Amino acid sequence: MSSYLLAGLVILIANLLPAFAPPTWSILVYFVFREHMNPALLVLIGVACATLGRAGLAITFRKIAPRLPRGYVANLERLGARVNTDSRSTWGLLLLFFVSPITSAQLFEAAGIIKQIALKPLLVVFAMGRIISYSFYVSGAHVLSSTSLGSLISREITSPQAIALQVLFIVGLIALGNVKWKQRP
Q1: Furthest-apart CA pair in the chain: how many Å?
Q2: Contact 72, 178 (CB under 8 A)
Q3: Which of 30, 41, 73, 125 sits at 20 to 30 Å (Cα–Cα) from 181?
Q4: What is the SS3 assignment for 2?
Q5: Taking the model in full, what pTM does it have?
Q6: What's the CA gap between 140 and 13, in Å, rounded?
Q7: Contact 78, 184 (CB under 8 A)
Q8: How far apart are CA 148 and CA 150, in angstroms?
């Protein structure tokens, strides 16, 4: 299997996971140094596969939304209606996806549940932001050149900070759906 294909597959799978996956930048850094791959090509593959993975995650949550508690989904849908009726909120949402935090899984899960939110614009700005951030990480990654993929993934998944951040974002997603958002008049 080609190293580029393997890298794309690993990145795709990591971005399909709803939580506790290693960040894409760490996978990119590994492949650049361990497989001596072209950094620019790898960044493009990483952006494409990460975006495709997040699209799959959002679509999955869109499909399972009917199985979630009705009140939770209704609250998120009211939030989506507010975002769609206010251009400042729409631009703010796009900006959030452009510079989204290290973990964006929960953002895409919420966007998937909120049917009023169009996924394509979010995916476009996500990809644009990732081109910048992945390029930055890959170009400055010489510090990690002696790290194995297994130890990198293990450290990213098992570190107390990584676990705390994932739990915090999951709690935030749950809290977001439990706020009684009011519809704008």
Answers
A1: 58
A2: yes
A3: 125
A4: coil
A5: 0.77
A6: 24
A7: no
A8: 5
Residue 16: CB atoms within 10 Å: 18
Residue 185, token pair as written in the block: 């008049």
- CA-CA distances (angstroms) from residue 184 to 77, 79, 106, 117? 12, 10, 25, 16
Q: How far apart are CA 37 and CA 162, in angstroms?
A: 27
Domain layout of the chain by residue ranges = 3-178
3-class secondary structure, 161: helix
Strands (E), 47-125: none
- Per-residue pLDDT reduced to its tens digit, 102-160: 668 888 998 999 998 899 999 999 999 899 889 888 877 654 555 555 566 556 666 77
Q: What is the DSSP letter of 140?
A: T
Q: Which residues of 48-65 are buried (b: 16+ CB within 10 A; e: fewer)?
A: ebbbbbbbbbbeebbeeb
